[in-house]
Amino acid sequence: MLSVVILTLNSEKYLAEVLKSCEFADEVVVVDSGSTDATEQICAGFKNVKFHKQKWLGFSAQKQLGVDLARNRWVFVLDSDEVILEPLREEILQVLQRPEFCAYEVARANIFFGKEVGTMGLYPDYTVRLFDKTRAEFDGREIHEKVVLKSAAKTDEQIQAGGANLTAAKNQIGRLKNHFKHYAYDSIEQFIAKQNRYSSLGAKGAKSSKFKAVLNPAWTFFKLFFLKGGWREGWRGYVIARLYAQYTFWKYVK
Fold first, then answer.
1. Is the dihedral of CA 22, 62, 166, 181 positive or negative?
2. pLDDT tens profile 89-140
C-alpha cells in the first residue's frame, strides 16, 4: 500500500530511529549517493528496506528516482534525519484506506540545536510528502525542490483506480493533521556549513545583486525575528534569524 523513499549520504546518526519509524510501510526505498559510514549496514538490519546506490543526480532527480523505484502507487518521501511519529503513522494508514486527494501536505516539527522551534515559520512548515506517484512528481529544481501535481491528466480509468473520492478531487492537495519530527541542525557549525552549500546551489539560479545583498538580509532577519515571532525563542531565535539572513547575503553575492 505504501512505500517510503529516503535519500542517504553518511546518514548513520539518526538512520536507525528513522527506519524504525517506517516499519509500518510495505517497503522503504533508500537511495544512497556514496556513504562511507555505517549507513548501508544499518539499512541491512531492517527487513522492509531496499538499498540502492546512485551517484548524486541533484535533489529532485535523486528523489524522483527513489519514487520511480518504489513498487507502490502511494509514497511518502522522508529525509534521513526525519522521524514519522505514531499519530502521523496512524493517520497515514487511515487516509490510505480511502484517499480523498492526490497528494497531502504534512507538518514538520523542526529541532534546532536540541530544541523544537515553534515560531519563525518553522512550524508547522507544511510540505507535500505523501502522494500518488501517478498524479504527482518532483519539479526538477536543483534546490528547494517540491512535489507538484502532474500537468498531464490521466484517464478516468486510471484515476478511478485510486477510489471515487480521488476522482472527485484529482487536482487538489490535502493536508494531514499530525506532524513528523525533523532533526534540522545539531550545532551552529552544521547550520553554517549547510546554508553555505545551499546558497552556492541557489546562486546558480539567481543573478548576483549588490542591491539585494544589502537589503534582503536585513529584511530576512526582521521578518523572522520580529514579524514571525523569533524573539519568543530567545537567543536561539536570534541566532537562527541571523544565520538565515547570512544565507540570503551569500546567495546574492556568489
1. positive
2. 999 999 999 999 999 999 999 999 999 999 999 999 999 999 999 999 999 9
What tens digit of pLDDT does each residue of 139-161 get?
998 878 999 999 744 434 444 45
Q: Which residue has the cell 541533484?
A: 58
Determine the Cα–Cα distance for residues 115 and 134; give it in Å rounded to an integer.
37
User: What are residue 27's DSSP bridge partners?
Assistant: 3
d(CA 16, CA 20): 6
Do 161 and 170 touch, CB atoms closer than 8 A? no
What are the grid coordinates assigned to 46, written together? 531492517
| CA atoms of 96 and 103, how far apart (whole Å) | 11
pTM above 0.85, yes or no: yes
244 in Cβ contact with 199 (< 8 Å): no
